[in-house]
């Protein structure tokens, strides 16, 4: 004896994915070029761990937009070379980044940099 199993005509899709025929829209501000939109979307990939956020706050380190852009560029360069954990030097800051996860693990400013040893890194990027 065989039982028949009937499936509904509409397909089951994971939550959050657009339905067939629906495209995700990125809102474009007037006057923005494709390059500007792309740069904004690419920059969103870098995260800061709770430890890194605590270090930045405790040491009163505020990253400028320029520094964040250079940090992103450094992480992308390290990724293109196959790095996994990288020390990225931006101006007077040293940041250890998990390249694979695109996550800043810790941050040290020049005042606290003296006599520090960075372990578990396989590359260094100077920006």
Which keywords apply here?
5-stranded mixed β-sheet; 3 helices; 127 residues; YaeB-like fold
Briefly, what is this?
By secondary structure, the chain is of the alpha/beta class. The chain contains three helices and five strands; from the N terminus they run H-E-H-H-E-E-E-E.
Provide a descriptive summary of the structure in words.
The chain is an alpha/beta fold. The protein contains three helices and five strands. The protein has a domain at 46-126: 2-Layer Sandwich (YaeB-like fold). The protein is extended.
The fold-level CATH name of the domain at 46-126 is YaeB-like fold
Beta percentage is 15-25%
Strands of the widest sheet, in order across it, are 1-4-3-2-5
What's the count of strands?
5
Assigned CATH architecture of the domain at 46-126: 2-Layer Sandwich
C-alpha Rg (nearest Å): 21 Å
Q: Count the helices. How many? A: 3
Principal-axes shape call: extended
Main sheet makeup: 5 strands, mixed
Roughly what is the average pLDDT, rounded to an integer? 81
Instruction: Tell me the helix content.
Output: 25-40%
Termini Cα gap: 71 Å
Unreliable residue runs: none
Computed structural class: alpha/beta
What letter string, H or E per element, gives the SSE order?
HEHHEEEE
Just give the CATH class of the domain at 46-126: Alpha Beta
């Amino acid at each position: 004896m065989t039982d028949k199993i009937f499936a509904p005509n509409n397909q089951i899709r994971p939550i959050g994915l657009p339905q067939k025929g629906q495209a995700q829209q990125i809102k474009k501000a007037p006057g923005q070029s494709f390059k500007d939109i792309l740069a904004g979307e690419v920059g969103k990939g870098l995260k800061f761990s709770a430890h890194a956020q605590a270090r930045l706050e405790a040491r009163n380190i505020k990253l400028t937009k320029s520094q964040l852009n250079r940090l992103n560029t450094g992480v992308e360069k390290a990724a293109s070379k196959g790095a996994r954990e990288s020390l990225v030097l931006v101006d007077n800051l040293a940041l250890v980044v998990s390249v694979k996860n695109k996550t800043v693990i810790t941050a040290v400013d020049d005042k606290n940099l003296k006599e520090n040893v960075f372990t578990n890194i396989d590359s260094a990027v100077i920006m």
